[in-house]
Design goal:
single chain, 339 residues, alpha+beta, Beta-Lactamase, Heat Shock Protein 90, 3 domains, five-stranded antiparallel beta sheet, 12 helices, elongated, FMN
Length: 339
């Protein structure tokens, strides 16, 4: 009996020490830690929240925390929290909270999960809020720079097309060439817009075949005269489309310089194949100059294309330098393709 009492005493002491360490860790955390009951009523916030918000626990309760959300986001975020409470599903959202000291809105990523008892009933929620304001600012600055670069590139296409037209006016015999050249420039500008992060964000997901057709149009007067796009199609998300656009553009440019598109009769076949959770893209060239073998060194564009295949798509790319034409095989996990 004495041994049981001693064992229980030691167990209780270890539990108190563990709880003390946990409370100290929570109270010293430089991020928000909070608990609430099963119905969403806040029961605890660590000191960081009170210092940041200027609210007491009582002021935070009964939805008081939501008053610190930027008005543009408040209603949508509260609805998402109510949905999580009603469905007992994990909650994660980015929220701009107003800081009490200077009134600045700072972005946090807020995560919460329900805690269940032995019977599977939700008894409380545990949540954290991490300050990501500097990261959001960096993302916005990068997006602004990307938009500015995209705009400047589109302007270059416009200027080049205009110069071709103006020059051809002095040489009437060159007008047919100038018109075709301007059409190619326009198609290239359209493909650039389609493959840019802004274009991808605006149009959502693509299919692989639609994306390829759009990107390759500038390289042929009539797409089907030089390209055969066939096989299984697949949805392509924005991130994957950006990487694929870089790879396709690089291969088409090389084909114009050295491969099938450098001759009048050359053709390129692009096939898509689904198999066991992956999507394989096969690029086959024919009708071009004889391929002597692999190049002695890879150019910058080729290196970037290979890095895109592995780092952005999580796949692999293989080159077969067949004498009759280059064959490229790109394999991408389907889960990565739709991102």
């Amino acid at each position: 009996m004495a041994a049981l009492v001693i064992e229980r005493h030691l167990s209780d002491q270890a539990l108190r020490e563990s709880e003390g360490r946990f409370r100290t860790l929570v109270e010293l955390s430089p991020q928000v830690v909070w608990f609430c009951a099963a119905d969403g009523q806040v029961t605890y916030c660590n000191p960081f929240w009170h210092a940041f918000s200027g609210l007491t626990l009582e002021q935070t309760r009964n939805g008081g925390w939501a008053n610190l959300i930027h008005p543009d986001h408040q209603d949508a975020i509260v609805r998402r929290w109510q949905h999580a409470l009603g469905s007992f599903t994990a909650f994660e959202v980015e929220i701009p909270f107003r800081r009490s000291g200077d009134g600045e809105y700072r972005w946090f990523v807020v995560r919460a999960s329900p805690v269940h008892d032995a019977n599977g009933e939700v008894v409380q929620w545990i949540g954290i809020a991490l300050d990501i304001h500097e990261r959001k600012q960096a993302e916005e600055a990068r997006e602004l720079l990307t938009r500015e670069l995209s705009h400047r590139i589109k302007n270059v296409f416009t200027v080049v097309g205009g110069l071709a037209t103006l020059t051809a006016r002095r040489y009437p015999a060159a007008m047919p060439f100038a018109r075709e050249f301007q059409q190619r420039i326009g198609a290239l500008a359209s493909a650039h817009e389609h493959a840019s992060p802004q274009g991808l964000a605006g149009s959502g997901r693509h299919t692989f075949q639609d994306l390829v057709a759009k990107l390759l149009t500038p390289y042929a007067g009539h797409l089907h005269d030089r390209f055969d796009i066939s096989g299984d199609d697949a949805l392509v998300g924005g991130n994957a489309a950006t990487a694929l656009a870089l790879i396709i553009h690089e291969q088409a440019t090389n084909a114009m310089k050295y491969g099938a598109l450098s001759t009048d009769i050359g053709r390129i076949r692009i096939q898509g194949r689904r198999s066991e959770g992956s999507y394989r893209i096969i690029w086959s060239e024919s009708g071009g100059p004889t391929v002597p073998g692999p190049p002695q060194r890879l150019g910058f564009g080729s290196v970037m294309a290979m890095r895109s295949s592995t780092e952005q798509l999580g796949g692999g790319i293989e080159h077969e330098w067949a004498p009759e034409g280059l064959v490229i095989r790109l394999t991408v996990p389907l889960a990565n393709l739709v991102r």
